[in-house]
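Regression test attached.
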Amino acid sequence: MKNDPFRASFDSLEEFADMVSEVLHCPITIEDANHRLLAYSTHDDRTDPARIATIIGRRVPEKVINSLWKEGVIPSLLNSREPVRVKTVDEIGLGNRVAVSIWKNDEVLGFIWALEIEKTLGDEEMDCLKRAADATKNKLIQLQNRKNKKEEQYQEFFWQLLTSHLSSNEEIINKFHALQISPPTLFGVAVFQFSKELGREDEKQIAYLLKTIQLPKILLHTIDHQQLILFIALDGNQQPVNKLNAFCELFVVKMKERFGIESIVQGYSSVYCDLGKVEKAYKEARTVLSVKRKFPSEATEIHGYQSLGIYKYIDVLIEKAGTDQNENYSLKRLQEYDKKNNTDLVETLEVFLNKDSNVHEAANALNVHTNTLNYRLKRISEIGEINLKDPNQKISLYLDLKLEKFKK
Amino acid sequence: MKNDPFRASFDSLEEFADMVSEVLHCPITIEDANHRLLAYSTHDDRTDPARIATIIGRRVPEKVINSLWKEGVIPSLLNSREPVRVKTVDEIGLGNRVAVSIWKNDEVLGFIWALEIEKTLGDEEMDCLKRAADATKNKLIQLQNRKNKKEEQYQEFFWQLLTSHLSSNEEIINKFHALQISPPTLFGVAVFQFSKELGREDEKQIAYLLKTIQLPKILLHTIDHQQLILFIALDGNQQPVNKLNAFCELFVVKMKERFGIESIVQGYSSVYCDLGKVEKAYKEARTVLSVKRKFPSEATEIHGYQSLGIYKYIDVLIEKAGTDQNENYSLKRLQEYDKKNNTDLVETLEVFLNKDSNVHEAANALNVHTNTLNYRLKRISEIGEINLKDPNQKISLYLDLKLEKFKK
DNA sequence: ATTCTATTTGTGGAATTACACAAATCGTTC
DNA sequence: GAACGATTTGTGTAATTCCACAAATAGAAT
């Protein structure tokens, strides 16, 4: 192969994919950096399930991406300009193939995949693939520019939603259509707080992760200092809240797994259908974060606004309790007793309430025998004159315990 | 008996009691209208346990009063000027005796008791007793006047306490001593709301009842339109709150039993030791009443401020929820489901939460099988995406349910 | 009328919880 | 150190709750 066949100009990426396919005698797929399908060769109809799924869905299936990360394929593609060979992974229908990344300066713009259906590519063909990657560079830069412009429009629109800048729902829906996003009938807003200001590089990694997670659909996302804000479509989910919750958990795990970014604090809103409530949802998600800041140990497990319980109203409660010089007789008695007798009745009570009055769980959390806990609860009832079967009394105590905790 | 021996003037009631005792040959006791001991004869040492207890305690024991009411003795003494005979009631150590009431116009000022230790009083002696009663009238009027003046001082002091008019605790304690009340180390304030304005007559009945209830000590009481306000000493009680609660229940029962006054609404404060907190306690008791007004069915069982639970803060919560346009996704879903399928999931959830997550009790309250309730709870979890083991979620729901109820 | 699904109720066994009692432990007081 | 009371833990049994399954019922859709 003396002349580089890829020197010639080409009109579309499809045309180019076909050309490469013909040169290498194997099916070719071209993706962008987020594993969205850009083009695929059609002159060769031999293929494998992973490729079919990619073409049908216009993107690489999530489980395939996960597998490629686990196998170390994607990391090495992101690190090196050399082609990488992938061995068959039957579970996800991935046949043997070779991939190469497409570079612009120090940035990966996309990937070219060559399926090794019958034959294995030799060194020379590998080199050819590498040159093919270089040849697509300009085309991808153009695409990226176009996408960047669109991305800017998205950003602007998202901030308009977040600040309730658009008044009527009709206006919002029109804007969605203008940006070629189908407006969700059910949505939530999630906010992730990072431990540092998010830079250009982080942004790219995040965008990559968001694009590759396929469900739920992240319709819009933006970054505000240390916070990542997501607008998430939850249409068609039987249990949208659970889906949202699962996603947020997953996102945090993946960020750590893939990019080693830790200590992300998550918060998400209620689920709404009214598109006029994006700002409200945004506020809710931030309320969750603010509660976590105020009650680090209590609220680590709480991510959703609907799980906030009493903390939803913690601000006004603190205020009210402050002006009223709140003082709980039962707690006072228990504290006095604790002090005098070196016991932990107050803590016991709190853990018991935290654990939804479940003796077993509370005993475990306290590292004591169940009978010990029962004994303590009996004492708590007596000393504090508390009826632990009365939900109102329990709420009072729970509340006052948390309020007191906040004062310190 | 031609000459009325009681015509002669006498210096003290004690002297008079001895005189009557000598004429009738039996021990004599003189009480005021509230069964406080005014005087007793000492020349005759035959007596019975009830009389001993009365003299020791300077008042008729509560159980004796209760018994005399049940037997109809006191009602007839209050209705008629004729002497009444009481047969032995062994359980309370009450021997045979005769009583007569002391009248001023249409008002009973007190009673004279004559014990029939060995002999039974004949008609003539009964008549003699009646004349004796008449002879004490003036003495009792004097006592009453003195007491009225003291009562006025009490009233003024109580209102000073209720309005935090006295600044230092020292000042308060001095005032207590000046009025010959020993200041309590532990106290509570109870407010009873009657269904009508309280008149002179009601006031007397109430005062009577309060004086005859011996524990806890009602140190001060006053009436404000439809409300009776009590200042209650709780010193020495192991469980002051329970004592206070028991008293309030008892008071309502007695008012109905004795005077047929129904539909009294009760509310009582926390227990405090700081005498500067009387006003706060008063406010708490009124808060209970106001919650009962707002949530008639929810709060009928709640009497004490410490049992108010979330209702303690209901005002600020309502306000906050109002401005925030609060909307609970789970409840919304459940309501929609209820409407569409004619089910009662929301009500089921509420009862379940009211009953402190006790399946058995909630099933009873709803008149359904336990399994039915369990099935519904499972559906509630699914449809509302609720984790019923999470106390925060439960509190959220409880709160939002009550807030919604209030809006209607 | 029939089919379907959602709901209600019943049954029985496994799992969990409640409770009483005894022994051990620990700190305090005398 | 003896005695005491409060606390912790262990043991066993009774009571209750949980759960799975089946049958009966009701209501809606076809």
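Expected vs. actual: identical. The longest strand of chain B covers residues 107-115.
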